């Protein structure tokens, strides 16, 4: 097997005194990252995760790639078959995580093509190193989504938020997702940052540079593969809790490679 290890630039948060503010885009041709913070570009090694032995898993690295055929053919018209797809990925996540229950609460379409974004009102790739939830915002998301009595019960046990990320139009060459092995990151690398969206204000984490970070990606991820990664886990027993991640410019992408088109689905995942 030929290695697809690469070296590529990624953007880390520059340390500063002010609290960063991340403004979520609304999607469309002109969708672009807008963040009230400064970033430094670091050239990093990003290893071919397909060559890991044993394979990466949710409990150690915090991410895994799973073969996953889906019955959905057109993700730009998901609404009529939303229940079907959500049943598919709930079963996928329960099998991969060992959880007892899960619920899907969000789908986001992205593309690095201005034309595609304009056609489908999709969003831009997130091309700074980040993680989607802090401890506080993960708990708030759970309380916002569940009835008060169920939320109180779920908060007394372990819960997680897992992202299911997949290509929706052929293999991913451009703007693939790089993931940082949880065990190589320090908790102090993650900086709580305000996230402002049209309908709510929350928190995510931007990430400081750390030379100990070990970066991976899955080259040419296929439509029939699903990438799972944790953005939060309430367990504090040493298992992976969150995964720093970012889109990056792939130096191995062929000149004529199609744009990246992807969907990410977020699930609340509950353990007994």
UniProtKB/TrEMBL annotation:
<dbReference type="InterPro" id="IPR044053">
    <property type="entry name" value="AsaB-like"/>
</dbReference>
<dbReference type="GO" id="GO:0032259">
    <property type="term" value="P:methylation"/>
</dbReference>
<protein>
    <submittedName>
        <fullName>Methyltransferase</fullName>
    </submittedName>
</protein>
<keyword id="KW-0808">Transferase</keyword>
<dbReference type="GO" id="GO:0016491">
    <property type="term" value="F:oxidoreductase activity"/>
</dbReference>
<keyword id="KW-0489">Methyltransferase</keyword>
<dbReference type="GO" id="GO:0008168">
    <property type="term" value="F:methyltransferase activity"/>
</dbReference>
